[in-house]
Automatic annotation (TrEMBL):
It comes from Tranquillimonas alkanivorans. It is a multi-pass membrane protein. Coiled coil: none annotated. It is found in: Cell membrane. GO terms for molecular function: branched-chain amino acid transmembrane transporter activity. This is Amino acid/amide ABC transporter membrane protein 2, HAAT family. The chain crosses the membrane at residues 48-70, 77-93, 99-119, 126-149, 173-190, 220-241, 261-286, 298-320. Keywords: Cell membrane, Membrane, Transmembrane, Transmembrane helix. PANTHER family: ABC TRANSPORTER ATP-BINDING PROTEIN (PTHR30482:SF17), HIGH-AFFINITY BRANCHED-CHAIN AMINO ACID TRANSPORT SYSTEM PERMEASE (PTHR30482). The keyword Membrane applies. One of its GO terms (cellular component) is plasma membrane.
Length: 330
């Protein structure tokens, strides 16, 4: 009886298929970046590309709960911090394997998300936002207090993570492609989640939690599961950010960083997955371009964001869709 009340998967295939195509195009562009950088003899493109890929993972993970679960987490950067400090702390004890570091980051993030989500999800609206912000700031100040790892000044890594005993990730190209492969794998996982029964229930809860509860589903359980999954995915992004920068700092988990992740999702298009990836690309490229022109780049970035919200409420994904539709009509 309950299954019959959930929107059938068939209507979702077309938009989901469109998002997959958009993601494939983005992945192809990313894959072509290192050869272009090598041809131009400019390794900076690979370094900034790796940073963009890591933030794309974090933005996509946030979109999973913001776009499909209507959970505006303003402390999501804490999970980035868990990923970065998992690399730093384990490296200081001689554990350099990226799989072990990632496993530790996921474990810590899962426990933190489980506890904080269980508390935060008992509230709604602005109260949920403020509680997630409070927990994120608690994590932020905890890592500031770790003087052994630099406190507020941060901590430099002696080396990058190893991959199955190999130091191949010391090569910027190898790190780039490892990050890209992880983004592709996590996008596939998110795509499967969104298209699954779990994803349809989560979307139904976003639209009308009272009705979903009336037909036998527990909004709390589904939202908490999504919250934990999102936090774990974000921590993986932190692992790659630490390796890209070869430096960790509590700044990775400040509330400003959480706001930047939300901006990336809004800019790309809420509830699109591929839009979140595009939003991360656009936000970071704009930051680099405007930052090279003026120290007041945030003013111009804010103006661009306002114009996007006014003229394309569905973000870059919506804008691309409008252009494509006009092209078909013409």
């Amino acid at each position: 009886m309950a299954d019959a009340t959930i929107p059938h998967a068939a209507p979702m295939r077309r938009p989901l298929a469109g998002r997959v195509k958009a993601a494939v195009v983005l992945f192809a562009i990313f894959a072509a970046l290192p050869p272009v950088a090598a041809a131009l003899d400019d390794p900076f493109f690979v370094l900034i590309g790796t940073r963009i890929l890591a933030y794309a993972i974090a933005a996509m993970a946030l979109d999973l709960i913001l776009g499909y679960g209507a959970m505006v987490s303003f402390g999501h950067a804490a999970y980035l911090g868990f990923g970065t400090y998992a690399v730093a702390i384990l490296s200081s004890y001689g554990v350099h394997d990226i799989f072990l570091q990632t496993a530790a980051a996921i474990l810590v993030s899962a426990l933190f998300a489980l506890v904080t989500g269980a508390i935060s999800l008992r509230t709604r609206g602005v109260y949920f936002i403020m509680i997630t912000l409070a927990f994120g700031q608690m994590a932020f100040f905890f890592f500031i207090s770790l003087s052994a790892y630099g406190g507020d000044d941060g901590y430099g890594l002696a080396q990058r993570s190893t991959l199955l005993g190999s130091d191949m990730l010391e090569n910027d190209f190898a790190l780039f492609y490892a990050t890209l492969a992880t983004l592709v794998a996590l996008f596939w996982a998110c795509h499967r989640i969104v298209g699954s029964r779990f994803g349809r229930v989560l979307t139904g809860i976003r639209e009308n939690p009272t009705r979903m509860e009336a037909i036998g589903y527990s909004p709390f359980r589904f939202q908490l599961a999504a919250f934990v999954i999102s936090g774990c995915m974000t921590s993986i992004a932190g692992v790659f950010l630490a390796n890209q920068a070869e430096f960790v700092s509590p700044a990775f988990m400040s509330w400003h960083r959480s706001g930047e992740l939300i901006v990336m999702v809004v800019l790309g298009g809420i509830g699109t997955l591929s839009g979140a990836i595009g939003g991360a690309v656009a936000a970071l490229l704009l930051e680099e371009a405007l930052g090279a022109l003026t120290e007041h780049w945030r003013l111009w970035f804010g103006l661009f964001l306002v114009l996007m919200v006014l003229y394309s409420p569905n973000g870059i994904a919506g804008l691309v869709k409008q252009v494509a539709n006009r092209g078909r009509k013409s």
